[in-house]
Amino acid sequence: MPLTSSKVQSHKSMRLFSFCIFFAILVILEVLSSISAMAQGNLLITPRRVVFEGNKRSEELNLANTGKDTAKYNVSIVEYRMKEDGSFQEITEPDPGQNFAGKYLRFFPRVVVLAPNEAQVVKVQVTRANELQPGEYRSHIYFRAVPEEKPLGEGETKKDSSAISVRLVPIFGITIPAIIRVGESTVNLTMSDLAFEQVNDTTPRLKVVLNRTGNMSVYGDLVIQHVSPTGKITPAGSVKGIAVYTPNALRRFQMDLDRTSGINYHTGKLQVVFSTQSDVKPVKLADAELLLH
């Protein structure tokens, strides 16, 4: 039976709707990919974390717009728990052993508007420091992009009312940790459960568990070297800026190793070193070895 005009129109609308949904999923995946790569919009922030300890009570964050359009950002505080795999989950109440820093922080301005290639400073200060008990306090400063608003009076273009449209406005944001430390640190780090695997028979991967004890978080760099049976040492990989935040006792970490330098990962051993970041001399916190076979 031939399709009527209304049925043909309905069929076209359904196909358009399916295409819009498929396109929406692609855009969302692209946005999520950019978030995981920390390439959120065109906002550049330095430093990437703030730590107040000793007599330090203020810090300046440098924001720069590397894009071609004017951008607006709202600045606020969010609270996160870190999961064992290193991902974050937003929370409203602290976990046992966790202290929020938000109510002890003041920052200004709270709204930043940056023209293309323009930079601005956001100042962060510790307040009510006399109320802080020994320990570590952590919150995250959230820079949330504000979508451009259509000027008042600008009319909407008339469209076919029978068609279905989807308009996606990706919201970009960057968070950086803000940490207050009071008192002496008793933190200690060890590494355990080292394991090597070959993913899809092509990608060498190292798995390791970082074990934290004490009253402070751990933050540093992981460096891996391959030592051949003859003693030849070859860099096999490194990752900067790995954290194990309080109150977590461990973090399960994995990373792909170098496969371009001709390393034979079926012989020799891997030396793994976790060190603090320093412009002068990094301090080794933990090391471990894994025999390969």
Topology readout:
Layout lengths: L4 H32 L6 E4 L3 E3 L5 E8 L5 E8 L1 E3 L5 E3 L14 E4 L2 E4 L4 E8 L8 E11 L27 E10 L5 E12 L3 E11 L4 E10 L5 E12 L5 E7 L12 E8 L7 E8 L2
Parallel strand pairs: 2-11
Antiparallel strand pairs: 1-3, 3-9, 4-8, 4-10, 5-6, 7-9, 10-11, 12-13, 13-16, 14-15, 14-17, 17-18
Concise account of the structure shown:
By secondary structure, this protein is mainly beta. The protein has one helix and 18 strands. It has one helix at 5-36, and strands at residues 43-46, 50-52, 58-65, 71-78, 80-82, 88-90, 105-108, 111-114, 119-126, 135-145, 173-182, 188-199, 203-213, 218-227, 233-244, 250-256, 269-276, 284-291.
Q: Which features characterize this protein?
A:
Immunoglobulin-like; 4-stranded antiparallel β-sheet; 293 residues; 2 domains; mainly beta; 5-stranded mixed β-sheet
Write a structural description.
The structure is a single chain. The chain is mainly β and 293 residues long. It folds into two domains: 43-148 and 168-182, Immunoglobulins (Immunoglobulin-like), CATH 2.60.40; 188-291, Immunoglobulins (Immunoglobulin-like), CATH 2.60.40. Helix content is 11%, strand content 46%. It is built from one helix and 18 strands. A five-stranded mixed sheet has the order 2-11-10-4-8, with no helix packed on it. The protein is globular. The model is unreliable at 11-39 (pLDDT under 50).
- Count of separate structural domains: 2
- How far the N terminus sits from the C terminus, by CA atoms, comes to 69 Å
The SSE order reads: HEEEEEEEEEEEEEEEEEE
CATH class of the largest domain: Mainly Beta
Question: Which bin fits the share of residues in helices?
Answer: 10-25%
Q: How many distinct beta strands?
A: 18
Mean pLDDT: 85
Give the class from helix and strand content and strand pairing.
mainly beta
The CATH architecture name of the largest domain reads Sandwich
Shape: globular
CATH topology of the largest domain: Immunoglobulin-like
Largest sheet: 5 strands, mixed
